[in-house]
Design a protein that fits this description.
The chain contains three helices and five strands. By secondary structure, the protein is of the alpha+beta class. A five-stranded antiparallel beta sheet has the order 1-3-4-5-2. The longest helix has 24 residues.
Amino acid sequence: MKETIAIKTSHVFPQHTNSHGTLFGGILLSYIDDIASISAIKLCQNPVVTASIDSVDFVKPIVVGDAVTLESMVTWTGRSSMEVLVKVTAEHLLTGEKSIAAFSFLTFVALDENGKPIPVPKVIPETERERWLNETGEKRALHRKNRKKESEELLKFLEEGK
């Protein structure tokens, strides 16, 4: 698992914020998807596509002047899909105070040269934290499958209203 870790740090400037003076959610989502895709590609060494973003839990606002650091790691693998955890940390650069600001799980699918899903290697957890993330990954994957079925039903309903 540790070979899939990717880290990205950015400075939060006024143009990155919303009307509340906090980092705009869309920008953070872009950062999250970007760093997670790097971890996914590092594992399978093939192109990947984002299959889902489970959720983004915003824990603490990230404000102008902060540094925002994203750390991603593949936590679980299925046949052709993989789960990536992204932890977002805000750092007040003048005081050095750091705190977790958000976290998210994303799912990626590895693709061959024709854009078809291909098998991905298994990840090997080494630490207690990694083992817990890996062991609980299958439960999250099942939740995603169930949510996908519900989304397909909703899509049919929405398409009827065209």
